[in-house]
Amino acid sequence: MQHELIPNLAVGVDYIYRKYDRGTATYIVGTQPGAAGFPLSQIYTGPLTFTDPVTGMSAPFYQICATCVRPSGNNIAVTSLLYQTYSGVTVTANKRFADRWQLNGSVTVQNNPSFQPTGSFSNPTGVQFTNGISTLGRYLVKLNGSYAFPWEITASANLNVYDGGVRTETITGPGNVFGGVGQSQLGGNTYANLTFQPRNTVRFGNQKLLDVGVQKAFSFRGGKDRLKLMLDAFNILNINTITGFSSDNLGDSNFASPSGIVPPRVLRVGLSIAF
After folding, report:
1. Which has the closest alpha carbon to 264: 228, 239, 230?
2. Where are the beta strands (DSSP E) in 117-164?
3. In the chain, what's the furthest Cα-to-Cα distance?
């Protein structure tokens, strides 16, 4: 829906809903939907609890039951039971170029949860921390505009504000656990790390990226030839938001060691010639 409030200024609202499903999934023959071995998660027992000796924190996990045998054999591809939905609302404002300036802005609020019905997974470990949870950025703000000064000077700016990405914190797990009758410990499930909270509990800081630019044009031969000088500044606020760490394990010595940071402020000078 869009409406022109006053001449050269329009506002709008968009709502988007999408459902992603009907993909494919691979099962061992005999464990696919409709077969006797479905769902495969029935051979797992738990939840059991493991306490990390370093942090003292606990997390749940599952292992194959003491009398159960892990199935083996050929695979079969069937319609996946997994699905996800997307809901987003975007509010926009657009000022057309008039009176020497123009402006565009939008605010988006969105949600994109993934769903894991019973039978879509074999090992239930961690499912309660991901099922029905969205890890997508919750909001996005965009604002850009320009102004035409006298003497063929143009200035522009572009602002993007992003919600921070998800950081999945973990603790150390029990390692190798029982893998089923006739299977060695090493042949079972291995839990080097365990998730202990909903996946979207912790996020990195949001990002406010502001870029600006100034251009000065020189015209020759009645405008047939043009020379343009350009000065651009990226991340002019010089934010240094951390976007990743070397480890997400709370007990790891590298847990607080950044592995990714927003690049610093950059200045660029340019020249273009048209003839």
Report:
1. 239
2. 139-149, 153-162
3. 90
Cα separation of 92 and 105, whole Å?
A: 6
Residue 39 contacts residue 78 (beta carbons within 8 Å): no
DSSP code per residue over 230-254: EEEEESTT----EEEES--BTTSTT
The model's pLDDT over 254-263, given as tens digits with 9 standing for 90+, comes to 999 999 999 9
Distance separating alpha carbons of residues 10 and 7, to the nearest angstrom: 8
Cα separation, 202 vs 234, in Å, equals 28
155-184 mean pLDDT: 91
What is the reported pTM?
Answer: 0.86
Look-up: residue for tokens 């509990």? 201
**How many other C-beta atoms are found inside a 10 Å radius of the C-beta of residue 43?**
20
- C-alpha angle with apex 71: 69 to 177, nearest 5 degrees? 50
